[in-house]
């Protein structure tokens, strides 16, 4: 697939077919994405991939987190149970959840480098997945900031940063593209002491 075509046509996917992606295809995507740039060759990304029955435990931990965060506080028992079941079904219907995390470097500059590299890795995953006919949604849900959730999935939050959960599966529906703004609106060219707005050419 042409690079520009992949960049422009990739969409965030919210609805998936009820089928697993071939394990080899998934492994290829996560493996090829490792060619992302990363300072000091730390390759700071790590993945926990929840699928099949593994999603049940994951969904429970997500709902426990929403509960702790007071998401259901304004509802009676019956309503909140219904909401929890809705979230559970929603999560179980997504074929794969790839939780992407990294070690926290105590040096802020290195932490930012690592975070940037992990984001580059994620975008590689998105583009490679798109090329393979696999849809992805890059999510940053509140439970990624819940220390108890991190502990629940076996990661000490003082050592690890949870970056994202990538929802993955074969797309059921591909949304229309959302418009992007011309870069000229955001770009200045500083040339021979003169600052100019970039023109359309
Ligand atoms: C860091 C980051 C976090 C995101 N978090 C969410 C999210 O939590 N939920 C969601 O529906 N989309 C999320 N998105 C996807 C964006 O909403 C999406 O990229 C945007 O609407 C543009 O659509 P497109 O990806 O189809 O071009 C996130 C994207 C990024 C880069």
Structure description:
Helices cover 39% and strands 18% of the residues. With 201 residues, it is α+β, with helices and mostly antiparallel strands. The chain has a single domain, classed as NADH Oxidase. Strands 1-2-4-3 form a 4-stranded antiparallel β-sheet. Strands 5-6 form a two-stranded antiparallel ribbon. The two termini are 26 Å apart. The model has no long low-confidence stretch (mean pLDDT 96). Bound molecules: flavin mononucleotide (FMN). The site of flavin mononucleotide (FMN) has 8 residues, from strand 3. The site of flavin mononucleotide has 8 residues, from strand 3. Belongs to the nitroreductase family. Residues 176-201 are annotated as: Disordered. This is Nitroreductase. Keywords: Flavoprotein, FMN, NAD, NADP, Oxidoreductase.
